[in-house]
Amino acid sequence: METVSRTRATIANLIFQYASLLLAITGIVLTPLYLRFIDLKLFGAWLASGNVIGWLAMLNPGLNELLRQQVAKFYGEKNWTMLGRSIGTGWAVVTCSSLLVVFIGLLISRIVPYCFDVEAEHLKELKPCIFLASVSLALVLFSGSPGSVQQALQRSERFLVIYLFGWACGVISTVILLFKGYGLFSIPLGGIVRGTIWSVFSSLDTLYLARRKLGVSIGWSANYLFKIKGLIGATFLKVAGRVMEKSCDAFLVAIFLGVEMVPLVVFSSKLWQVAVQFSERISVAFMPGLAHLWGEGEKSRAVEIGAKVLKVTIWLVAFEVAALLFLNKTFIGLWVGDKFFAGGTFNLLMGFGIITYAYAYASGQVLFAANIIKGPALAWFARGILRVGLLIVLLKVIGIIAVPITMIASSVIILLVYLQKRISLLLNVDLMKLKRTMTIPLLVGTCLGLAGAYLVGTNTWLELVFGAVAIVLINGMVLALVDANFRAFAVSAISEMRLR
Fold first, then answer.
1. Each residue of 125-160: b (16+ CB within 10 Å) or e?
2. Are 31 and 336 in contact (CB under 8 A)?
3. Quick check: 31 pLDDT over 50?
4. Strand, helix or coil for residue 1
5. How far is CA 500 from the centre of its chain?
6. What is the pTM for the complete model shown?
7. Interacting residues of 118 by C-beta distance below 8 A, sequence separation 6+
8. Which of 38, 97, 120, 339 has the smallest set of CB atoms within 10 Å of its CB?
9. What pLDDT sits at residue 432?
């Protein structure tokens, strides 16, 4: 039976997780091209309907994330029978849910376009594009199943190659179709090309890896499915909460404020959304390794690494907040035009929003690796419900500023209060110590970002790049001076994070 290094696997997983940000970055790079070939009002309706397509992810009951945790745990326990059953059962359920996404996508493509105030000619284009987007989503969700298995088996580098190849083919396809005059169709068709490559190649490679390399027999097990039904329910609620939280802004803005306001909110939030994903990737990358440690019974080591994952997440968020408070307005002006910047107050509140979200998400991943699943999942679902409710109430009252305010309020009310208590018990850390660990770097990042925004001007892409480098370096130096934890970690970062 072939063995692997958790450290090497986690490094590969980190590379893969950050490579997955290419999708978000591609959206940023291609947006000016979209605006050149696609009518602005139609594109606003597409962005809003994209939120509805995102809701279809709730039809995937969190199996990919649960599969990653369960396979890593059984692999750590060397329970080969349950390892094969978990892979086969999870794969079967994800296949069914992906087919359901396509069916529901067909139905909503006939309904959702009529929710927006768009011309009849745009409706003819929007309806089939929504269906094609659901097919693209189904392929992505399906490909996540074999991809999760590869990560759980500590072999993320295999899916990384497949991911990059599929991403490149998808981007090339979209650009070619745009210049060929396919308009809005170019976006979902490029997604279908990407998803097909991911699904086919990752499935074949996972079968080879499990059967030939590890000698594991993959099979469906009704008993195993029945045994984990509670965990599936919990992860479904977690996924549902996250989907509601992430896929409601543009749609509700279109309904309550009009589709012309959607690009303003989406473009002003774009870099913040990338920052959120960037901070999420650390805890997601370490989760399979942590679950593997728990499976092997090395709980003290898992607790130690889990605490460091939380600290690194907070430090990373501090750098992100400093940079984006300083540079986001300039970036939007250079990217799509000043008219799409929602204002300094919106920008500041988005910073506070990702602070609360990122810490809560990282805490949930650490608990998830320790097999503490149901409580955090219920909390995340409650957060999603609360945020949607608050948005519905507040959008008409205070306008687009409700988007970051509801992100902050729902995180503080539901997640931070609950998750901090669970994390403090798991890591055996005092709550006040946890709060102090968070406060210092975030205060530094916020103050530096605001000072940079008011005292320094940047007007070109070159100045933007130099400004970003400068704020990162200054933030790092100040943190090293005032935060003993950061100073100690910076001296020995590699050995501190090693999983052995």
1. bbbebbbbbbbbbbbbbbbbbbbbbbbbbbbbbbbb
2. yes
3. yes
4. coil
5. 27
6. 0.70
7. 41, 42, 45, 126, 259
8. 120
9. 66
